[in-house]
User: Fold (S)-2-haloacid dehalogenase from Pseudomonas fluorescens.
Amino acid sequence: MKLSNYRAISFDCFGTLVDWESGIINALRNACDDKLQQVSDAQLIAYFLRQESTILADTPDIPYPSALSKTYASILAKLDRPCDKSKAIHFGNSISEWPLFSDTIKALTHLQRHHKLVILSNIDEASIEVTRARLLCNFYRTYTAQAIGSFKPALNNFNYLVRHLADLGIKKHELLHVSVSRFHDIEPAAATGIDTAWINRADTLNGTLSIQPEFSPSIEPLYKFCSLAELVSAHKAGH
Assistant:
């Protein structure tokens, strides 16, 4: 199926549109001062993914900023570092400081001319509103973990997406889901029967870490791109 034939394209937000890795790494290092200087960026992201996944699975109703604060505390505990509560709270509220990828705005600007664009995010309602304003895009719908009641990679989130778009007249085969994370998005979306596009950004860690043994998916995406810019180029070329 050609990319242009999809009526709707849904996006993971943080990691795909927003550079959460840089945001997480900078926020962690700023909060911990010099305590993490011996820990590499790759180690920090690996710690973050493991701790966050456990917290989200164990507490599916937790607001995402609170989940970030708990993840911060868990990482420091794993590294035998003391945790300052005020710094944990600041880390949880750092979402608005996370940068956008350089190709995000141009990609969304192009794609919204041809498709209904949707966000499916593990974030809370308040945080997504701040982020949506920065994305400069008129999203057709936004679905958050807070509204759904569970966090990706739960299949419930993708069934929710399919069900709500179906109520709006968009069928499952008319939807493409786009994400950088095979663990959080590509595998559960594909398992739900949604076509998927994996954005494996060469300059980020998540694409590599999400195919490590503990995060390894078994379902291949329908499309693979190195960036949103490459997806847009394929779209313009009629692929």
Residues 1-17+99-235 form a domain with the Rossmann fold fold (CATH 3.40.50.1000). The longest helix spans residues 41-58.
